[in-house]
Amino acid sequence: METIQGKAAIVGIGQTEFSQNCGRTELRMALEAILAAAEDAGLDIKEIDGMVNYTMDSATQIDIVRALGIPNLSYFNQIPYGGGASCGTVASAAAAVASGMANYVVCVRSIRDASGPMRYGDFEPTRVSGDLHMGMYHPYGLLTPVSWVAMFANRYIHDYGIKDGQLAWAPLVNRENANRNPNAIFYNRKMTMEEYLASPINVEPLRRHDCCLSTDGAIAVIVTTPERAKALRQKPAIIAGASQGMSTNGEVMTSYYRDEITFLHEVEASGKKLFQQAGITPQDIDVAQIYDAFSPLIPMQLEALGFVSRGEGVAFCEGGTRINRHGELPINTAGGLMSEGYLHGMNLITEGVRQIRGTSTTQIDNVENVLVTGGTCVPTSGLILRRG
Fold first, then answer.
1. Residue pair 221/13 in contact by the 8 Å Cβ criterion
2. Dihedral of the CA atoms 118, 119, 121, 126 (nearest 10)?
3. Which residues are within 8 A (CB) of 167 and not within 5 positions of it... i.e. 6 or more apart?
């Protein structure tokens, strides 16, 4: 079967600062990130002819095109389902350049989750008004993402006998990595196990430090073909695999009516396709950027992606030695969504590119294959990036 492997590459990355009060609009930040990505790639902004962003973006494509003076877009698309869109933007861009529909596609996400009118961690009636299934949950107090994921987490803890504190290790490793990353919200702000355990409960069993950070910022990446990449400035991150996953009987964040709710069926399906496309197994991944909106989602993804068997994800993370920078599977080397910032997963993609380039602040030696995952508990997406 013909696959996307080797037919597209990420050649430019750009971002704003990550903050909790950016003082400007999502549109302004999107423009800054796109200009930075074009500068990084060594590409004239007028050569951009494709754009992909999130359906949740308030910075519209037509406003971006007008403000930047882009002559013409021959390809434009938007990906739904919140953080599940992150790697899906690059998958769409890769398909566009591989098929000849566009030459240089920019993927962008701009978010003011900390200071804007829409805060994704809070109850926002207009954001979910189109989701009819939410009418089954809101009257009973299930109003926010942390409450929705807490339902899965409670069952996961019950089924596998997870003890208090065992979920701490991924947040602690993320924080160690963020302490080396000057762009991270939690740069140079250490966290101990005692501080983790003392942090307040947001929704049982999830503490404050089990949750991602409300963040303002924007990120852009530019995708083209490996042939065009040869004329550009940076070492390309070749796309070895790109996929999305939407399994049956699902809901956005509340798939509670499946036979089992402690397993991420979309992630399993997406992961199988990713590894098949790339022609490798989980054991060939050198470093992984795992979507970590909430801490239980890391061990659950390790299980669904085949790194460990069901119920073994928490034990794999325990102690942190197997997932830190010296371990067999280093994760979230820029700090992830819990300690670098919550850019709806796009910062995991840029960190994957930095690992391929060899420029991460927590650089892993001899990186060949990088896994990046998109949001979970929603239709999801994933990438495998490879050194060119």
1. yes
2. -10
3. 205, 210, 295, 296, 299, 314
List the structure tokens of 12: 């430019």
Comparing CA positions, the residue from 365, 335, 338 lying closest to residue 350 is 335
Residue type, 155: R
Structure tokens at 73: 């877009």
Per-residue pLDDT of the chain (388 residues; tens, 9 = 90+): 678 999 999 999 999 999 999 999 999 999 999 999 999 999 999 999 999 999 999 999 999 999 999 999 999 999 999 999 999 999 999 999 999 999 999 999 999 999 987 677 777 666 565 677 888 888 888 889 999 999 999 999 999 999 999 999 999 999 999 999 999 999 999 999 999 999 999 999 999 999 999 999 999 999 999 999 999 999 999 999 999 999 999 998 999 999 999 999 999 999 999 999 999 999 999 999 999 999 999 999 999 999 999 999 999 999 999 999 999 999 999 999 999 999 999 999 999 999 999 999 999 999 999 999 999 988 999 999 999 8
Q: Give SS3 for 24.
A: coil
| Residue written as token pair 């501080």 | 195
Contact call for residues 383 and 274 (beta carbons, < 8 A): yes
CA-CA distance, 203 to 127, in Å (whole number)? 21
**Does the annotation mark 342 as catalytic?**
yes
The alpha carbon dihedral of 72, 11, 181, 81 has a sign of positive
Buried residues in 294-307 as b, exposed as e (16+ CB within 10 A)? bbbbbbbbbbbbeb
Q: Which of 54, 156, 196, 291 is catalytic?
A: 291
Catalytic choice (54, 75, 196, 342): 342
Task: For residue 196, indicate whether it is catalytic.
Answer: no
* Strand partners for 52: 77, 107
Residues, the chain: 388
Residues 6+ apart with CB under 8 A from 149: 206, 253, 293, 294, 296, 297, 377
